[in-house]
From TrEMBL:
<dbReference type="InterPro" id="IPR005146">
    <property type="entry name" value="B3/B4_tRNA-bd"/>
</dbReference>
<dbReference type="GO" id="GO:0003723">
    <property type="term" value="F:RNA binding"/>
</dbReference>
<protein>
    <submittedName>
        <fullName>B3/B4 domain-containing protein (DNA/RNA-binding domain of Phe-tRNA-synthetase)</fullName>
    </submittedName>
</protein>
<feature type="domain" description="B3/B4 tRNA-binding">
    <location>
        <begin position="71"/>
        <end position="225"/>
    </location>
</feature>
<dbReference type="InterPro" id="IPR020825">
    <property type="entry name" value="Phe-tRNA_synthase-like_B3/B4"/>
</dbReference>
<dbReference type="Pfam" id="PF03483">
    <property type="entry name" value="B3_4"/>
</dbReference>
<dbReference type="GO" id="GO:0004826">
    <property type="term" value="F:phenylalanine-tRNA ligase activity"/>
</dbReference>
Amino acid sequence: MTNDAAGWLDSAAIDPAVHALRPDYRALLITAEGLRPGPSDELSERLLADAEQAARERFGDGPVEEHPHLAAWREAFRAFGAKPQRTRPSAEALLRRAPAGLPRVDRLTDIYNAISVAQVIPLGGEDLDHYVGAARLVRAEGDEPFETTAGGEPVVEHPSPGEVVWRDEAGVTCRRWNWRQCTRTRLTHATTRAMFVLDALGPMDDTALKAAGDQLMAALTDAGPGVTLASRLVGAAA
């Protein structure tokens, strides 16, 4: 658990081995305190519906994976040995679901999923009260614990050696860059302090990355007017 969100942002780091793999990678990290969690509601429904409409207008019936940012993410996944047709970058996975309707999970998850789809950017959220120490993006050794579920039961898995993962002092918080989050730090109906990761590669410039972050922060403020926000850009253009 971290009590100082601003200090926590300052401690976040991207390992040089990840920069070597993709020198164009940047992460916009946003912390939010004073959030109002809970089930999906009118605000999150409106954001998801707007995102679904934006996806229909942008892609129609065309293949979403040909979007320049998603194509770059597919290349990044292949570079560390993942097969993007089996384990898709998170934004691509969501956009593929948009025509039939995006999932309705809870108000905080719905908000960041809507921004992910609207801005075509991988975006995830973590509960800061369950985070242990600094956030680090590294290439895995292969023995790090990753808490998840299988068949409805809790299990501990391990990433592949060389896999790009987000981690803290207790283990892996997100596998394959932005593919799957762990259960330990996922957002819940009790989450009031969170951090969000917006992942950008070369086709998304810093102006577009900032615009995505601004849209997320505006939505979080609408969802909880007393929220306190902070952000930091980490990476090549930081």
